[in-house]
């Protein structure tokens, strides 16, 4: 892996990522509608849920849409993260005539493709998606193909990750910490080592001695630090490869020395009072991040000048210490939109996707994301707005606001408070200059280890949060039970299948 490798040139081989899926995919003749036919498209989307002004905004969106794609309107069904997966199951079981479906981490995309849930979009894209093909990188489209066919339009967005930052109250770090020293130790360690925890603990110890320790460490997000030097692979977060290993050997993440060290350190920090005593009783562990009397340390993504944007968001100075120097691209797209195999109007659905994912639809995209100017936002400049019903991210109590990464091409979005000036250009630059994983185009097909996958998820849900918290008296006994259960549930079988597909992918792309 070379730093100069570009994200959008490596994953051209993504089309061969799941060769086993064939024959069951939706291949029925795609319906055509006359331009004079009135069509209402139903879109099942992830978002904050139903909001007070949702219908008001959809009505305005449809007025604008009529002038671009005549005789076409949208019905929007927005479900929150906590309810989306269950709603999706119900809709699928009932064969409801949904046209557009949000695709992301809550959906088992390869299995749904295998079950014939979505249209193969290639012909539709050729006929109605000329602007998508011109503006969305071909390699990104290829990276989400299965058996050489396209079943979703990936949302073009920030593709980079792998650069976490430790967030803290700047007034406290100025007084008790050497932020530069912490950063240097983190940078000089390829993974999370004892030295990394020691330099962080020096700060916690001084903070506590000075009587200014609030809620200590937010263990839920602090666990992200352990990903340093690793990339998760497969269907969840349980199995990893090392970023410096070109052969991409698969490991059970929980058996790595780094994960074992993390559990040990959290247990030690809990005993020393650096972790809140009620940690296991708190339903939403992260809710006190970014509060003046909340956590002293938590972890979030790092970007240039993000300290300033977080300070603006939280209303007090934030220090953000990066964990490593480079950005990393794991592959594919985090989210996208599929056309349901039950859609009676796939041609219009593709026309709408072509609109919302390209420059010609910039204005109407921003209507769907941010609402109505003067009601839900005010313009600060041609590229920047001030949202009126929320700050940070919208929720169900906001008058209106959708997640831009669930709607379409995020590089059409207005900048909002908290964004860097020139944010879109900045992120496009990161997308093109980061390190790219050698398995960036792999889509893992877990159909042969479906039972094992479900059992593994059940076991990790049972143990990992409590181990992360440090609050278990005999954490080692709990850890050993988890590993024994994972092995009995077929973790080795799962890893072997994952390794086989990775090896096959690497072989195909190195020919």
Strand order of the largest sheet: 2-1-3-12-4
Report Rg. Answer: 24 Å
Describe the largest sheet.
5 strands, mixed
The CATH class of the largest domain is Alpha Beta
What would you note in describing this structure?
The chain is α+β, with helices and mostly antiparallel strands and 511 residues long. It folds into two domains: 18-158 and 333-369 and 402-413, D-Maltodextrin-Binding Protein, domain 2 (3-Layer(aba) Sandwich), CATH 3.40.190; 162-326 and 446-511, Periplasmic binding protein-like II (D-Maltodextrin-Binding Protein, domain 2). It is built from 19 helices and 15 strands. Strands 2-1-3-12-4 form a five-stranded mixed β-sheet. Strands 9-5-10 form a three-stranded antiparallel β-sheet, sandwiched between helices. Helix 9 runs antiparallel to helix 10 (194-209) and helix 17 (450-469) runs antiparallel to helix 18. The radius of gyration is 24 Å and the shape is globular. Mean pLDDT is 91; it is low at 1-28.
Index terms:
single chain, 511 residues, alpha+beta, D-Maltodextrin-Binding Protein, domain 2, five-stranded mixed β-sheet, three-stranded antiparallel β-sheet, 39% helix
Question: What's the quick description here?
Answer:
Helix 9 (179-187) packs antiparallel against helix 10 and helix 17 (450-469) runs antiparallel to helix 18. The model is unreliable at 1-28 (pLDDT under 50).
């Amino acid at each position: 892996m070379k730093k100069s490798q570009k994200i959008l040139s490596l994953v051209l081989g993504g089309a061969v990522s799941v060769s086993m899926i064939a024959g069951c995919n939706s291949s029925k003749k795609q319906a055509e509608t006359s331009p004079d036919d009135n069509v209402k498209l139903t879109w099942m989307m992830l978002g904050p849920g139903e909001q007070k002004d949702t219908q008001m905004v959809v009505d305005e969106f449809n007025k604008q849409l009529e002038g671009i794609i005549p005789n076409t309107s949208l019905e929007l069904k927005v479900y929150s993260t906590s309810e989306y997966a269950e709603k999706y199951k119900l809709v699928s079981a009932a064969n409801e005539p949904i046209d557009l479906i949000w695709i992301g981490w809550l959906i088992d995309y390869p299995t749904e493709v295998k079950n014939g849930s979505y249209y193969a979009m290639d012909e539709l894209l050729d006929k109605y998606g000329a602007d998508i093909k011109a503006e969305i990188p071909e390699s990104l489209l290829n990276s989400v193909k299965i058996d050489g066919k396209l079943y979703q339009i990936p949302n073009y967005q920030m593709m980079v990750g792998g650069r976490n930052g430790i967030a803290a109250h700047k007034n406290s770090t100025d007084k008790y910490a050497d932020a530069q020293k912490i950063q240097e130790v983190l940078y000089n360690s390829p993974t999370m080592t004892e030295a990394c925890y020691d330099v962080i603990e020096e700060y916690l110890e001084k903070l506590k001695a000075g009587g200014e320790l609030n809620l200590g460490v937010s263990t839920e997000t602090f666990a992200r630090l352990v990903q340093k030097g690793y990339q998760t692979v497969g269907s969840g977060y349980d199995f990893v490869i090392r970023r410096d290993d070109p052969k991409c050997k698969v490991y059970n993440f929980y058996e790595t020395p780094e994960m074992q060290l993390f559990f040990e350190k959290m247990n030690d920090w809990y005993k020393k009072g650096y972790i809140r005593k009620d940690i296991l009783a708190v339903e939403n562990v992260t809710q006190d991040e970014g509060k003046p009397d909340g956590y002293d340390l938590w972890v979030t993504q790092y970007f240039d000048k993000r300290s300033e944007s977080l300070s603006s968001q939280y209303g007090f100075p934030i220090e953000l210490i990066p964990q490593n120097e480079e950005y990393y691209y794991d592959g594919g797209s985090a989210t996208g939109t599929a056309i349901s195999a039950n859609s009676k109007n796939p041609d219009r659905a593709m026309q709408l996707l072509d609109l919302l994912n390209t420059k010609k639809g910039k204005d109407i995209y921003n209507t769907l994301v941010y609402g109505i100017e003067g009601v839900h936002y005010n313009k600060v400049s041609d590229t920047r707005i001030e949202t009126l019903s929320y700050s940070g991210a919208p929720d169900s109590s906001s008058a209106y606001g959708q997640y831009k990464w669930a709607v379409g091409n995020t590089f059409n979005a207005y900048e909002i408070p908290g964004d860097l000036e020139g944010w879109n250009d900045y992120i496009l630059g990161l997308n093109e200059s980061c390190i790219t994983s050698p398995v960036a185009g792999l889509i893992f097909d877990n159909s042969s280890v479906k039972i094992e996958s479900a059992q593994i998820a059940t076991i990790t849900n049972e143990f990992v949060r409590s181990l992360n918290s440090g609050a278990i008296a005999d954490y080692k006994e709990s850890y050993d039970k988890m590993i024994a259960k994972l092995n009995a549930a077929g973790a080795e079988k799962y890893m072997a299948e994952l390794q086989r597909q990775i090896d096959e992918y690497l072989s195909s792309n190195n020919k």
